[in-house]
Amino acid sequence: MTTKTSSMTFNDLLTNSALMTNNIRLNAAKVGRYGLDLPAFTDEMDADVANATTLNQEQEHLKSELKLKTEALNLLNEKLMVSYALAKKTVKLAETQPNWVAYGITDKK
């Protein structure tokens, strides 16, 4: 009996879910008559909200770590490209063209 809710942000979903469970609890006698197993339903929904909040915080932390790692990798990649270009030019000056292959250089000129 799952239905898709209207498109809302994740934070809106968490906020609205907490508001929903609080108000269901306040009106348990009225709402419970329509098939919800109260308070088990609201307890489970609150636990899901808490779990989702925790996972979201962990995910945001990992995103920030990933951003830092990506920046570091990009800097290292740029440095490596410069070093490789310099090494390639140097090998081309030092070796004859048939010997370039031993260095991994497949250029024809």
Can you offer a commentary on this structure?
With 109 residues, the protein is mainly α. 71% of the residues lie in helices and 0% in strands. The model has no long low-confidence stretch (mean pLDDT 94). The chain contains 3 helices and no strands. The protein has one domain.
Summarize the structure.
By secondary structure, the chain is mainly α.
Strand content: under 5%
Biggest beta-sheet profile: none
Backbone shape: rod-shaped
Structural class: mainly alpha
Low-confidence stretches: none
Helix content: over 70%
Number of domains: 1
Number of strands: 0
Give the end-to-end Cα distance, rounded to a whole number of Å: 69 Å
Name the average pLDDT: 94
Rg over alpha carbons: 30 Å
- Helix and strand run: HHH
